[in-house]
């Protein structure tokens, strides 16, 4: 299945959702940068971040090395892909599950519409 990676997540009002990150400029001063939050980033984050239990400081679930390698490899493929890529049904399921664990309903709804479109007209929310 082909998925579009450069989709920018939107608020319910159709405005782009943005990430903030701190970067150092050429003088070593910290600058806040704002970038649109894309489906590519959501997939990479879901694949690479392990939720931590705040009480124990350890991962919420134990994941074996084989599964970690699978997630890393898929994240790398997504990162290196141009604007679209083919993914397997198993990878669609993995992404849906992981995004659902980590994402808000606003992100999950849009991501699932990309990964598993129910109605082609509703696949990607329209700009307002």
End-to-end distance: 28 Å
The topology string of helices and strands comes to: EEEHHEHH
Strand order in the largest sheet: 1-4
> Which class do the helix and strand fractions yield?
alpha+beta
How many discrete structural domains?
1
Q: How would you name the oligomeric state of the polypeptide chains in this document?
A: single chain
Q: Count of DSSP E strands?
A: 4
Q: What's the gyration radius in Å?
A: 16 Å
Report the helical percentage. 25-40%
Q: What global shape is seen?
A: globular
Our estimate of the beta-strand percent is: 15-25%
Mean pLDDT: 89
The largest pleated sheet is described as: 2 strands, antiparallel
- Count up the helices: 4
Low confidence ranges:
none
Summarize this entry quickly.
With 128 residues, the chain is of the alpha+beta class. The protein has helices spanning 39-48, 65-80, 89-102, 105-115; strands at 2-4, 18-24, 30-36, 84-86. It contains four helices and four strands, in the order βββααβαα.
Structure description:
Strand 2 and strand 3 form a beta hairpin. The strands form two sheets. Strands 1-4 form a two-stranded antiparallel ribbon. A two-stranded antiparallel sheet has the order 2-3. It is globular and about 45 Å long. It has four helices and four strands, in the order βββααβαα. Helix 1 runs antiparallel to helix 2, helix 1 crosses helix 3 and helix 3 runs antiparallel to helix 4. The chain is of the alpha+beta class. It has one domain. The model has no long low-confidence stretch (mean pLDDT 89). 40% of the residues lie in helices and 16% in strands.
